[in-house]
From TrEMBL:
Pfam families xrefs: Na_H_Exchanger (PF00999)
Cellular compartments annotated: Cell membrane
Sections of the chain in a coiled coil: none
Principal subcellular localization: membrane
Keyword terms: Antiport, Cell membrane, Ion transport, Membrane, Transmembrane, Transmembrane helix, Transport
Family matches, as InterPro entries: Cation/H_exchanger_TM, Na+/solute_symporter_sf
Recorded topology in the membrane: Multi-pass membrane protein
Source organism of this protein record: Microvirga subterranea
Protein's name according to its UniProt entry: Sodium/proton antiporter (CPA1 family)
GO molecular function: antiporter activity
Domain of life of the source: Bacteria
Transferase recorded as keyword: no
Length: 406
């Protein structure tokens, strides 16, 4: 264990020394982390000895996703979102269901041995997007604000929405009860997950921000402990929602939105969130390294043409066609729709879902996990390498007055 910890944090230290330089290139951090994990894992130097079934891997991935959701949501520009809610609304209400339906249909063609529930599980695991892999797009001021905020909000909410659906499908797969009763129970579970997540996320955010204001107004906050509240609030929100039977991911995103909206000063909000963002980056680094070491190593031996075909389709047609259909009638040019359709990278949420499904020991779970793993691998390469170049090219094409970032 100590050898694993030493390797992980030594790599984190070294990466921190060169992070600024790498961020000015087209090489995504997730790509570096994953390659390192593969190099030092069982399929490489065998310095890291990890088990993909280990509860620690799932816990790390879940808390990483929770912290990233909370900080991304808290940093969202709500003024822009209020004026441009059409894009994320259409992507979530129309694009997301169509993506799952199309993904399920594609799985039926490529994986006929899987049952309908397993096919739907695969589509659901790969429906959420990860803004971190397309960070060069989300933070690039040259890209129009509606598109940036649309992608950010979509990636924040779609994984939270998919969580209860995933759990419902797992319940149906584990206990196949015929008739309408099982589906009524599943629907009740879905509503419960979302409802509890909304209530817990909003309630804890309001209470947390009020407590921070109360403490700050009386000078009780010290410089050192000022770094902790955002991280503690995010983890508390996630764990409390999960413990009460709700979706911790929805709770974290909603809580982040509420906390960001209630913050009095933008500067103070940035100061409070800075350490949480750094912690999220560190947790993300560790998760990607473990993914490279424990998951990719196993996926290498399970690559088939069906798995590769589904991975390619998931990143292209299964994502881009629903996005195009969802945005029909929206005030957006064709190149903007294609841009939004392409930047649907798969990342942390899909990894978390894959680990959950693998632990469930369903028929075909290894096929499901291998397909998710290869989709994420291709996404790391494709979206990581194209984020900055395509963002700047798109900005030049629409004639923005802002200069693209290098």
């Amino acid at each position: 264990m100590y050898q694993d910890v030493a390797i992980l944090f030594a790599f984190a230290f070294v990466y921190a020394l060169i992070a600024g330089r790498l961020e000015r290139t087209s090489v995504a951090g997730a790509l570096v982390f994953t390659v390192f994990g593969l190099a030092v894992g069982p399929e490489g130097l065998n310095w890291l000895r990890l088990d993909v079934h280990a509860q620690s891997l799932r816990t790390l991935a879940e808390f990483t996703l929770a912290l990233v959701l909370f900080t991304d949501a808290a940093n969202a520009d709500l003024r822009v979102l209020r004026l441009n809610y059409t894009i994320p609304e259409r992507l979530l209400l129309i694009g997301l269901p169509l993506t799952i339906l199309l993904g399920t249909a594609a799985a039926a063609v490529l994986f006929p041995a899987l049952g309908i529930i397993e096919r739907a599980l695969l589509a659901t695991m790969l429906a959420p997007t990860d803004a971190a892999l397309g960070k060069a797009v989300v933070v690039n001021p040259a890209v129009p604000a509606p598109i940036r905020e649309g992608l950010n909000v979509e990636s924040g909410l779609n994984d939270g929405i998919c969580v209860p659906l995933l759990l419902v499908l797992l319940a149906l797969a584990g206990e196949p009860v015929g008739g309408a009763g099982s589906w009524n129970l599943a629907l009740h579970h879905f509503v419960e997950e979302i409802g509890i997540g909304l209530v817990v996320g909003t309630g804890l955010a309001v209470a947390g921000v009020w407590a921070l204001r109360f403490s700050a107004d009386r000078g009780w906050l010290s410089t050192t402990w000022r770094q902790l509240p955002a991280i503690a609030l995010a983890f508390t929100t996630f764990a409390a929602a999960q413990a009460l039977g709700g979706s911790g991911f929805i709770a974290c995103f909603v809580g982040g939105i509420a906390a960001g909206a209630l913050a009095r000063h933008q500067e103070r909000k940035h100061e409070l969130l800075l350490s949480a963002e750094g912690s999220g980056d560190l947790f993300g680094l560790l998760t990607w390294v473990l993914f490279g070491a424990a998951v990719i190593g196993q996926a290498l031996g399970r690559l088939t043409w069906e798995v590769l075909a589904y991975a390619v389709l998931s990143l292209t047609a299964i994502r881009m066609i629903p996005v195009w259909l969802a945005l029909v009638g929206a005030d957006l040019r064709a190149d903007g729709k294609l841009f939004l359709g392409w930047f649907g990278p798969r990342g942390l949420a899909s990894i978390v879902f894959a680990v959950i499904v693998l632990d469930a020991n369903l028929p075909g779970s290894e096929t499901l996990t291998a397909t998710v793993a290869w989709t994420v691998i291709l996404s790391i390469l494709a979206h990581g390498l194209t984020a900055s170049p395509l963002a700047n090219a798109f900005a030049r094409r629409i004639g923005t007055t802002q200069a693209p970032v290098p």
